Amino acid sequence: MKGIQNTSTENFSTIIGNNKYFIVPKFQRDYSWDKEQWDDLWQDLLDMRAGDDEHYMGYLVLQTKDDKEYRIIDGQQRFTTITLIILAAIKAIQKLVEKGVEEEDNKKRAEHFMHTFVGKEDPVTLVYDNILRLNRNNDGYYRDYIVPLRDLPVRGLNNSERLMRNAFEHYEKKMQLMNASGKEYAELIQDISEKLYFTTITVSDELNAFKVFETLNARGVQLSSSDLLKNYLFSLVDDRTNHNSHIELLEEKWSKLTYNIKAEKLPEFLRYYWNVSHRSIRANALFKTIQKEIKNDREVFALLADLQRYSDVYMALMQKNDELWEDDEVKNCVGLLNLFRLKQPYSLLMAAKLNLSAQEFKKLFKVVLAICFRYNVICDKNPNDQEIPFNNLAIYICDNKSLDLSLLDKLYVSDDEFERSFADKSFSYNSNNAKIIRYILGQIEKGKGNREVRFDEEEASIEHILPQHYDEKWCVEEDVASRVVNRLGNMCLLEKKKNTDLQDAPFSEKVKTYAQSVYWSAKEVAENYGEWDDGTIIKRQKNIARLAKSLWKWQH
Which of 4, 393, 412, 546 has an alpha carbon within 20 to 30 A of 27's alpha carbon? Predict the structure, then answer.
C-alpha cells in the first residue's frame, strides 16, 4: 500500500528497543480492555510458555517521521496491557528485594527490566522518561502511579484510569499466585518480550495510517465509524495547526456532541446526519465517505458545528416531550414515530426541521406518518426501499429550502393494496402492539364517534371479543380461534372497568355491556352482530378496512 515505509514481523523486545518511544495520540480512545481480555491474554501467555512456542499478537500500526517517536494508530490496548504485565512482574521482583530475598540480584533484575521496557528515571525529578506515553486522559495516572509502582489511588478516577488500575492489580494477583523466585519472574518477562510477535506496519503520515487501520481487524477493541471519524478529525487539527487552543476547542466540541448523543448512538446518528444532504450510504462506507470530503481543520470545525445542530433534532425525535417540540400536533407525531419504531424517515425529518418553516415541517411529518402507517405498519413492506425516496427529498429540502412531496409518491401504498392488507391484519399482543391497536381503534373512534382517544390512554382498554384464552363455550374451533383472535376485527375499545368486569363472559352477556359503552367500536358490535365466530370477525374487519382507507389517506 502506498505510504507504507515498512512491514515486518517482530517480537516485543525488538519493537521496543533501540531508544524508541511509543506515543498514543491524544485523540485516540482511552484504555478500554476489561477482565475478559486480560484473562484471554494471560491464558495465551500460559499456553505459550507451556508449549515453549511463540504467540502471534496481530497487527501493530505505527506512524513515524524520524524513526524515534512512533505514534500507535492501532494496537495500543495490547501494547499497554503487555507493559502492565511486565510492570506487575517487576513489582513482584521488587517485593522480593524488600524481603531481603537475593537482594542484590533481584535489584539488578528490576532495574534492568525497568530501563528496557518501561523507561529511565531522572535522578533529579525522579520522574520516568517513559517508553510508552498514553493519551491525555490516561498518561498522568500511568506515569505518576503505575510506572513508579506506588500505591494506586482508588477515588477520583475516570473510567479508563479505573480499568488500568484494575488491570495492573489483576496481573499483580497472578504474580502472587505464581509465588515465584526473582529468576522465574525474570524468565516470564523474557518470554513475554521474546515470544510475543506482532506484524508491525509503519507508515509516514496519518492518512495512510488510517487507510491501513480500516482494513485490519487486530486483537484490540474494534473501533466504530464514530471512533474512526474522531481519530481522523483530531489528527487533522493536531498535525495541521500551530494553535494549541484549536485542539482544546475541538475536544470541547466533541465532548459536547458525545454528551448530547450517547456513545452507543453516535455511529447511527452520523449516518443519518450524512444522509440529510448527501446521497444515501451504508454504515460501512461512512468513514471513507466523510474522509474524502473533510481535508483540513477549517472543514473539521464546520462539520462539528453542523453535527451539533442536527444532534439536537436527532435526540428530540426520540422523545415527544423534548423541549424542542412546542406544537402539540408535532409532539403527537413524534410519539407515533416512536410507536411505529420508524428510523427510516430520520434524515428527512432532520433536514425538514432545520430548513423548512414550522408549518411545512408539521405538514411533512403528518405525510410521512400516513405513508409509513400504510407501508410499514399495515403492509409490512421492505423498509430498505424507503431510504432512497426519503433521502432524495431530504437533499431537495437542503438545496431548495422548500418541499416537493411528489418525491414520496412511489412510497404511497395504493388504496386497494392497503385495504386488502388491512382486512387481513393481525397483531400479536405485546405492550407496544397494544398501543398500536389502541391508536388504530382510536383513529376509527375519532372518525366515526368524534371522540379523541390517545394511544397511551389506558382507560380506553382493548377488548378481545373472542377471548384471548380459548373457551369451549364459543362456537369456534380452537385452531380457528388461534388464527382470528388477534385480528383487528375481533377488537374494540371498552372502558377499563367494564372490560375487567366482563372477563370471559359469553358473547350474549358482552354485547349488553358493549351497548352501554361510550366507545363507538363497542356499541357498533352490539348494534350489528347477534353472534360471534370467525366468519363474523373476518366480515367486520373487511368493513373496518374500507373505513381505514379514507382515514389514513394522503392527498397532495
Answer: 4
Q: What are the start-end ranges of the H helices in 409-486?
A: 415-423, 431-449, 478-484
18/30 Cα distance (integer angstroms): 27
On whether the CB atoms of residues 343 and 269 are closer than 8 A, the answer is: no
Q: Each residue's pLDDT tens digit in the chain (556 positions)?
A: 444 556 788 999 999 988 899 999 876 778 999 999 999 999 999 999 988 788 998 888 888 888 889 999 888 999 999 999 999 999 999 999 999 999 999 999 999 999 999 988 776 666 678 999 998 889 999 998 999 988 888 888 889 999 999 999 999 999 999 999 999 999 999 999 999 999 888 887 655 555 555 555 433 335 566 777 877 787 787 655 555 578 778 878 887 888 888 766 888 899 999 999 999 888 778 888 888 899 888 899 999 999 999 999 999 999 999 999 999 999 999 999 999 999 999 999 999 999 999 999 999 999 999 999 999 999 999 999 999 999 999 999 999 999 999 999 999 999 999 999 999 999 988 889 999 999 999 999 998 877 888 888 878 899 999 998 887 778 788 888 899 999 999 999 999 999 998 877 889 999 999 999 999 999 999 999 989 999 999 999 999 999 999 999 886 5
Sign of CA dihedral 465, 468, 474, 478: positive
Measuring CA to CA, how many Å separate 474 from each of 144, 426, 460, 485, 536?
A: 78, 20, 25, 12, 13
Phi-psi region of 179 (alpha: psi -120 to 50; beta: other; left: phi over 0): left
Determine how β-strand 460-464 pairs with β-strand 491-495.
antiparallel
Q: Which residues of 546-556 are buried (b: 16+ CB within 10 A; e: fewer)?
A: eebbeebebee
**Opening angle at CA 329, ends 556 and 259, nearest 5:** 110
Instruction: Read off the C-alpha cell for 119.
Output: 523507561
DSSP code at position 43:
H
